[in-house]
UniProtKB/TrEMBL annotation:
One of its GO terms (molecular function) is DNA binding. It comes from the Bacteria. PROSITE patterns: TYR_RECOMBINASE (PS51898). It comes from Massilia psychrophila. The keyword DNA-binding applies. Gene3D superfamilies: 1.10.150.130, Intergrase catalytic core (1.10.443.10). Residues 158-321 form the Tyr recombinase domain. Coiled coil: none annotated. This is Integrase.
Length: 321
């Protein structure tokens, strides 16, 4: 509430309200001080106050850009955040942080789902949420109405595509890329992501211990990937250096070469990422438990691991007896 008092010949008005920094202003007339205090209180009650000392006049754009500069830069693959931020900034950047509502987010979600997949929209909403939380907990930005929220879109079941051994052989025969002929079997044997495969450095490959150390991964967590006999053979057959990148292809080149090979082989609806699905399913079929598979694939949540797993029904039938 507002407190009025005299100080050094002027009328001082001080407004205190939970969730806001104390607001203070001095006036020549008591009536003006009272009017100012009433106006500030009314705006606070409506959630519309944006006083200069409360930092609430800052826009969503300013918060998100600061987050990208200070927080995303710490991640191994900050480019993903930059890409996800573009549509958010275009649609919501002009809002003041304290004026963005749950309804605004819900409308953004509906509009984006008409253009992009549920997973993409979820990534965008999660990015904005993280920026809001950091702004509130570490940057001193007051959010009297809390962090705006909306339920995340329902994610579809992971793709059920399994790439069979004969199909992999067809792809290998169809490609003209010598590096892709090595990348494909390594992907199927290790369940590594495309970015992880292309980021392998020879100094992180330990053929004696049959492992590859990944210091940069999609989720920012390093891990060590064990090598099967087939994966070990691939690396042993190509090692020509002790340091530097194992593969020199760009990510886009790998994708394009894979798609060309799929088309030449007469196979439909296959993507490079399906190799990770196949590899994860094979790990379970080899008898590894959930924790062991997660250690290899780098999945943080079991729900995500489940979306990547498509077990062979015939194999399950044999286990049932």
């Amino acid at each position: 509430m507002a407190t009025i008092g005299q100080y050094r010949g002027k009328w001082k008005c001080q407004v205190r309200k939970t969730g806001y920094p104390t607001q203070t202003q001095s006036f020549d007339l008591r009536a003006v001080a009272v009017a100012w205090g009433n106006e500030v209180e009314a705006k606070m009650n409506r959630g519309a106050f944006a006083g200069s000392t409360s930092k609430q006049s800052i826009t969503v754009r300013a918060v998100l850009e600061r987050y990208l500069a200070e927080e995303s830069d710490k991640k191994a693959y900050s480019a993903a955040d930059l890409s996800r931020a573009k549509p958010v900034l275009a649609a919501l950047g002009a809002y003041h942080v304290h004026k963005l509502t749950h309804a605004d987010l819900a409308e953004y979600k509906r509009n984006r789902l008409a253009l992009r997949s549920p997973q993409t929209v979820t990534h965008e909403l999660n990015l904005l949420h993280r920026a809001y939380v950091i702004a509130s907990t570490e940057w001193g930005i007051v959010l009297p109405n809390g962090v705006p929220k909306t339920p995340r879109p329902t994610l579809p079941r992971g793709r059920g595509t399994r790439i069979r051994p004969n199909q992999i052989d067809l792809i290998m025969q169809a490609t003209e890329s010598e590096q892709l002929k090595l990348i494909v079997p390594l992907a199927v044997e290790t369940a590594m992501r495309r970015s992880e495969l292309l980021g392998i450095q020879w100094e992180h490959v330990d053929l004696d211990r049959r492992s590859i150390y990944l210091d940069k991964t999609k989720n920012g967590l390093s891990r060590t990937v064990p090598l099967s006999n087939r994966a070990l053979q691939v690396l042993q057959g190509m090692q020509e250096a002790t340091a530097g990148p194992v593969f020199t292809l760009a990510a886009s080149s790998v994708t394009q070469a894979f798609q060309r090979a799929v088309e030449r082989a007469g196979l439909d609806h296959m993507r490079f990422h399906d190799l990770r699905h196949e590899a994860t399913s094979r790990l379970f079929e080899r008898g590894l438990n959930v924790i062991e598979v997660a250690r290899i694939t780098g999945h943080v949540t079991l729900s995500m691991l489940d979306r990547y797993t498509h077990l062979d029904v015939q194999g399950l039938v044999q286990k049932l007896g």
